[in-house]
Design brief:
Layout (H helix, E strand, L loop, with lengths): L10 E8 L5 E8 L5 E7 L6 E3 L5 E3 L2 H11 L7 H17 L4 E3 H15 L1 H11 L5 H13 L7
Parallel strand pairs: 4-6
Antiparallel strand pairs: 1-2, 2-3, 4-5
Helix pairs in contact: 1-2, 1-4, 2-3, 3-4, 4-5
């Protein structure tokens, strides 16, 4: 591992531990030349699934795209970045349990909507309006009625 300070390609591991989510390893290292300390992370490189879009196109799964969609849904809502990251982690965990390399975008959208309906109804309706391609106010109203009639009793 190259030292980020002096670029010498020799360092020693001082401490290793699991990351908070248990899916990686955090290593504290020390350069053998300049004695600077730095942290590295290691994760298992999983093969990314392919997302099959509504029109049949296929594209590699992109975590950043999912994060950005959630950020837009939660814009100006009282939800932390850590909570958004936790949602993405949970969705990815669910997707990893599916034993196929191709995942319909519809399935990812359903997982997002499940999480949003439990956390924030405004974010849910924002996401649903794009995901379900609402064309008029009546479709919004029907979705809100459906959401209100669900088992979740939180106010909109």
């Amino acid at each position: 591992m190259n030292c980020p300070f002096c670029r010498i390609p020799d360092s020693k591991v001082v401490d290793s531990r699991l990351t908070a989510d248990g899916r990686g390893i955090r290593r504290r290292r020390e350069c053998t030349a300049c004695h600077a300390r730095f942290t590295t992370y290691e994760w298992v490189q999983e093969s990314a699934p392919v997302v099959v879009k509504k029109d049949g196109r296929r594209e590699p799964y992109d975590r950043n795209k999912l994060m950005e969609g959630l950020r837009r849904a939660f814009q100006k809502r009282p939800v932390s970045t850590e909570a958004i990251t936790a949602i993405v982690d949970e969705i990815e965990r669910t997707l990893s349990e599916i034993s196929t390399q191709e995942i319909p975008s519809r399935r990812i959208g359903e997982l997002v909507m499940e999480h949003l309906s439990r956390i924030d109804h405004v974010a849910y309706v924002r996401f649903a309006s794009v995901y379900k391609s609402f064309r008029d106010p009546e479709e919004f109203a029907l979705e809100i009625l459906r959401l209100k009639s669900g088992s979740d009793t939180r106010p909109l």
